[in-house]
Amino acid sequence: MGPLCMTAYGLIRLTDPGHGPGPAWSLGHLALLAGVLLFGQVMLGLRRTAVTGRGRVSRAFAGVGATLGLLGVAAVTAQAAIDLLVGYASVDRATMDALFERIQTLPGVTPAVYTVGPLLFYVGLLLLVTQLAALRAIAIWRPLAIVAGVAVTAAGGLDLMPLSGLLFLTALAPLGKNAATAPQPVLSSVTSGISRPAREAGSATT
Prior knowledge:
Layout: H1 2-14, H2 23-51, H3 56-89, H4 93-104, H5 109-114, H6 116-134, H7 141-156, H8 161-172, H9 178-181, H10 184-187
Helix pairs in contact: 1-2, 1-8, 2-3, 2-6, 3-6, 6-7, 7-8
């Protein structure tokens, strides 16, 4: 359900040209928050798959990937929560922009919540899925689909998030040959979700 929540967020955002505050802003960010939290479970599931029956090196690599991914989940969760609170406390977009500026100027907030922190989500996820591909637990095209999803949002911004969500769903869903051969945690990763690591110019997740 996570990629579907991500896609829903992108679609709802397209219906809100002013990008908050209002029902569309709140509903979209609730979908985003749900997707991110679901993705935390997927990180752990991918790690379990990568370490089952493997050696010390594989366990260490999977541990690093899961740790980075969960740190990214925490950062994006904080970003979505801030967006919800700012939207609730604002009467117009100008008020939101002022609140975002005040929050982002607090020491450590910008790197932890808006830049470096969310990037760890992508790094951790890609490490885990690439490891599974190297172990031949999943097909090599799956990490490539995740790279494509990240690239689409990075190049086209949040307007292309619905497409990114579908690419992540394709990468993590139990499709094709791997549906019969991949371990159960990989198959259950269809319940994943993701968020863009940093905000667009002017403000964060808009």
